Amino acid sequence: MSVTAAIDERDPDAVRARRATANRLLTILKAALNHAFHDGKIGSDEPWRKVKPFREVDAPVVRYLSAVECVRLFNACEPSFQALVQGALVTGCRYGELTRLQVADFNPDAGRITVRLSKAGKPRHVALNAEGIQLFEALTAGHGPRELIFKRADEKAWGASHQQRPLEEASRRAQLDPPATFHVLRHTYASTLAMRGVPMGVIAAQLGHADTRMTERHYAHLGPSYVSDTVRSALPSLGIAFNTTARGLREPVPCENITVAPFSSSPNGARENGN
Fold this sequence. Notes:
By secondary structure, this protein is mainly α. The protein is built from eleven helices and five strands.
C-alpha cells in the first residue's frame, strides 16, 4: 500500500515532485481512457484531451547543504529536534518515515534501520555509517521494541506538520536562506553519496527509489565525471595568479598585479610563439 503524505507547500521542490507524480498518473489514466475510446466503449475523447499536465516539473533543481551548513543547522536546533535532523542527514529518510520508526526497526548488529512503510509501498533497509549507528544506539537504549525512536520533548509523536516551524526557526538562526526543509536534508544525504562516487543503484536503494531513473535525474550530475576528470588532468595550468586582495572582484586588475609563470603547451616543452 502506497502512502500519500501531506507536503509543505512552501517547499518548491516538494510541490514540483508532487506535480510530477500527478503528471505520470495523468499519462496512465489517459492511456486507459484512449484504449477504451478506440474500443468504442466511450463516445468521445474530448474531455481528457482538454486536461493539460503541469509544465516544467520534470527538471529538478537539487539544493543540498554543505557539511558546514549541516553543523550550523544542527547546532541551531532545539535539543528535542536535533535528533530528528541528524536522523535525516544520516539516513536520507523522509520526515514521515523517520517519525514512524520504532525501536525494533533498528538492528545494531547489522548497522541498519528498516523502513517498513514507505512512499513506494514496500519496506527497505537503510545502511548506517558509524555516526548513524551511534545516534540510533543512543536513541533506542532502554526503550521497548514498540516505542517510537523519534519523539517530541513532551514524549508525544511528531505530527504531519510539526517539523515546519522548528526547522524554519533553526534555519533562521543558522542563517540558511532559503530555509532548509526535510526534502533538502534528504537531497543532502544523496548528493553527498553521489559526490563521493557511490553508484546510483546503491543510492536508489538507500532512498527507496523503484529504480535508478529518478536517482540519476537528481544526482548523476554530481558524481565524478569522466569528461571533467579528463579535462582537469590534461589541461595544463597557465601559471597566472591574480592578486585581488586590495580590489573588488569586478574591478580591473592592473598588469603589475599579475604574475605569469613559464607555460609550455607543446609536447617537447618548447614555448609556442603563436605563429
